[in-house]
């Protein structure tokens, strides 16, 4: 079964896509990764999206228009991918998160936009979407949903292994002999990107190759203020997003710290914040092997900081496990689509805090219906092979 997974993450900079050709052999699911790509949002659309995100006010009309425009953007990517790599049986679209409603440590709701009917029409295939809410209904965080893939992919790694994703938000799945656990650690690139945009430091909207951070010095007073954030003390599982970690959050911390750092010093400090918060959770969990993915992998300042703080931990890119770092989440949503199509849960209650596992998503039919597959035995391992 060929599944196209698609997502725009918390950095909201574009659409990642992956086509995976799945086949089940016994209890092992094999996935041939036949295509991966990343497509930036049109700058005008991204600017409009950013302007509507918390803490900015917005309107239902703006949400409706963005829901349509982002759905059309996803549809255009799906059409291009299928033209290049061939037809698919199913699409799983995460869409674009615009709000994740958390009160204290309880997730109450979540909203991802990107109308799936546009994607189904372009792909000529059914689309699984709205994949987080079923887990929240069952008492979970609705995140991190990549945990199922992490659990299957790292099951054979000796010791205590963990998968770390460094997107807008950092999240980690811990795989050990006990039930896997997972949670959002805190900001990875979210605050760095916010500072870059607010200070007009790079038209790309991020610290390319960590070049700005490399020129700065850490402001220890500001870093201490940022590390005092109560979110880091919440019990796991926990989840967060740009509802908390945004530019006004940084501005408030600057006022409390009495700091007026240069842009380079500010970016260096925010990069070190990611290093310190991630390293603390990795050490706390006793992780021996850390498999890293996401855009943060391309930031040498961030990665050097993790290697410095985690000298006794083996750091490996997810590429070594058949999941290219920039496409891992798209591959994970292709897996979720495959599981949903076969009536299998896509969540692990121990990872999200739910009371029960959930079959994820709503299905928008394609021209031949809903694409539901015969029930199969749930796999206990995943082997990925890059064929692209």
Describe the structure.
The strands form 2 sheets. Strands 1, 2, 3, 4, 5, 6, 12 and 13 form an 8-stranded mixed sheet that branches. The protein has helices at residues 43-52, 60-85, 116-123, 133-137, 147-153, 190-199, 211-214, 220-227, 247-257, 263-284, 300-309, 328-341, 349-352, and strands at residues 2-8, 14-25, 28-40, 90-103, 106-113, 127-129, 161-166, 169-175, 181-187, 289-293, 314-317, 362-364, 381-386. Helix 8 packs across helix 10. The radius of gyration is 20 Å and the shape is globular. Strand 7 and strand 8 (169-175) form a beta hairpin. It has 2 domains: 2-149 and 324-386, Nucleotidyltransferase, domain 5 (2-Layer Sandwich), CATH 3.30.420.40; 150-321, ATPase, nucleotide binding domain (Nucleotidyltransferase, domain 5), CATH 3.30.420. Helix content is 36%, strand content 24%.
What attributes characterize this protein structure?
Nucleotidyltransferase, domain 5; eight-stranded mixed β-sheet; 2 domains; alpha/beta; five-stranded mixed β-sheet; 36% helix; 388 residues; 24% strand; single chain; 13 helices
Would you kindly provide a brief summary of this structure?
The protein is α/β, with parallel strands linked by helices and 388 residues long. The protein is built from 13 helices and 13 strands. A hairpin with a 2-residue loop joins strand 4 and strand 5.
